[in-house]
Amino acid sequence: MLSLHTNAAALSTTAAVGSNQKALSTSMTRLGTGYRINSAMDDAAGLQIATRLEAQTRGMSVAMRNTQNGISMMQVAEGAFEEVTNILMRMKDLATESATASATDDDRTAMQSEFDALGSELANIFKNTSFGGEKLFGDTGTPDGKLSTALTFQIGATSDETMEVDASDALTTLAGTLDSVSGMFNTGTSGDEIAAATDANTMIDTLADALDDVGALRSQLGAASNRLDHVYNNLSNMSTNTTEARSRIMDVDYASETANMTSKQLLMQASTSMLKQSSSMSQLVLSLMQ
User: With CB atoms 3.0 to 4.6 Å apart as the test, which of 47, 92, 253, 261 could cross-link to 207 if both were Cys?
Assistant: First the structure.
């Protein structure tokens, strides 16, 4: 029907132009940002899922750093106890040498002097080994450093994902054993632990026990470090796959979206051209009235 008041073709074409323009704008925005979802209007459910996945991924990234820091702290402590082991072995050598009948009193005096110096260094290592500015072992009498209490590591993105390491009992036992090895460890006073053959002979067993206690503590720290390393590997795997899942939801497929944009551009050109043509429909009414 020809009408001066209503141009049905122009109305339909105008609606098509508006629809194509909106679709083209959305397509260009996606290509410009690289994201398929730029607002909740694009995909409300997808945005919610992607946000939850991103929160999980970020939490796991922080947890991965936590595990590495935890391993580093354990390695600092274990390295200190490695040197403690070396010192105790040297002290055991001195005790064994002093216990033999061929050693003279002057020899034992010299050995005791070195023994005292080694005891002082045991105390120095125990008191001053630190990580991030905080002492790991603390006082030689009653340990009060970081490892003197149970440690809780956050190893995941949720509150339930924690790992506890409790080396406090082993540390307290070792402090007591080292105190019995040398008076220099706790009180700072030189002793006569190996000044006599009989005392030196007794000290051999005491030092062997101390080496066992150090070994037990080092084993506990090493086991915790190994577990944290496995935690890191698992977090890395989960983070990678979770990131990929979020990418499939959020990221734009450039090949598909470029083709879609080209299609919308052609439709925009066609609908704009037809809108121009539809404007001439009213002129047909005038031709009938001539």
Answer: 92
